Amino acid sequence: MPTNRKKPIVVVTRKLPDVIETRMMELFDTRLNLDDLPLTVEQLTEAVRTADVLVPTVTDRIDEALLAEAGPNLKLIASFGAGVDHIDLKAAKEKGITVTNTPGVLAEDTADMAMALILAVCRRITEGERVLRDGEWHGWSPNWMLGRRIHGKRLGIVGMGRIGTALARRARGFGLSVHYHNRHRVAADLEGELEATYWESLDQMLARMDIVSVNCPHTPATYHILSARRLKLIQKHAIVINTARGELIDEKTLADLLLAGDIGGAGLDVYEREPNINPKLLRAKTAVLLPHMASATLEGRVDMGERVIINIKTFADGHRPPDRVFEGML
User: Fold this and answer.
1) Contacts with 255 (C-beta within 8 Å, 6 or more apart), sequence order
2) Angle, helix 298-316 to helix 18-27, in steps of 10 degrees
3) Which residues are catalytic?
């Protein structure tokens, strides 16, 4: 039978896939961002003052100052994305605002991109394509464009969560030896399936790997987990892959090592000060640089949107949303 229950006011900060926006319009009193331009601080402030539910993305800084402006009706921040480092979880809790994310839906896509970056750096794929497009290819030569074989090499995964595990499965298919460092050792059956070697000491693992992939979330504890000191432990021929968050790596030191030839290469999809890129990275010929696109598949974005809708609908119906995030749980 018809219901007179008031639909929650949902403010969406960026343009989402059409199918998701259409469903949101059906279910909620939804305010869309049709221009897809990042909201200004003033626009975000107006959003938190008027919304019952805010749907931000990683490009929106939801800090303590912004949350201090939140109206009494804002009770849910349903973030479109797995990471929540752009949200001050402590301030949200103090304001009585529930925070949710969209975990698990992007693991396969991000692992695909990490594997693609490993191949691109080791086999000089993007460099070779540039040479061909620039008309500088003059035919096959035995010693030209030599890269590195990945079969039989050691891959060190920093963070064996969903994405790290998905990468490990792909790596096994390419004949890589899987090693990992994690806050907690994974279950024995998973470790056995992946034939993975656990390193309690990150320093010791880094010094022995041919490829290092960073796959942990960005938290205060993981900021610059690959610090200047740790980057210098990595072997001169080894490469670094990052599809997680730019803040996990000391970008300046990495750029310096690349330009000096003191590290073999890097495949980066994320950066410390996005969308600004360190000019030294742009000059590094052994770096493959992508514009934060590891999770950019249509299927992934739709899956993310569906998780957002489930979290909002569950919360609006008076139940605990399935993807609730608490301070300190990541």
Assistant:
1) 278, 280, 281, 284
2) 10
3) 245, 274, 292
d(C-alpha 75, C-alpha 53), whole Å: 6
Tokens 């008309």 found at: 135
Q: Please check whether residue 65 is in contact with residue 42, taking contact to mean a CB–CB distance below 8 angstroms.
A: no
Backbone torsion region of residue 104, taken as left when φ is above 0, otherwise alpha when ψ lies between -120 and 50, otherwise beta = left
Phi, psi (degrees; rounded to nearest 5) at 50: -110, -20
Which DSSP symbol is given to 37?
A: P
Task: Tell me what the pLDDT averaged over the chain comes to.
Answer: 95
Rounded-to-integer distance, Cα 116 and Cα 297, Å: 14
Longest dimension (CA), the chain: 76
CA dist 81 and 295 (Å) reads 10
218-220-223-229 Cα dihedral, nearest 10 degrees:
-150
pTM beyond 0.85, yes or no = yes
Residues 62, 87 contacting (CB under 8 angstroms): yes
Question: Half-sphere exposure of residue 78, counting CA atoms within 13 Å on the CB side?
Answer: 28
| Partners of 98 in beta bridges | 76
Q: How confident is the model at residue 1 (pLDDT cuts 50, 70, 90)?
A: very low
Token pair listed for 33 = 């961002």
The token pair that represents 208 in the structure block? 């022995």
pLDDT tens sequence across 184-243: 999 999 999 999 999 999 999 999 999 999 999 998 999 999 999 999 999 999 999 999
Of 221, 220, 240, nearest to 230 (Cα)? 240
Which is more confident, 29 or 85? 29
Q: What is the pLDDT of residues 137-177, one digit of tens each?
A: 999 999 999 999 999 999 999 999 999 999 999 999 999 99
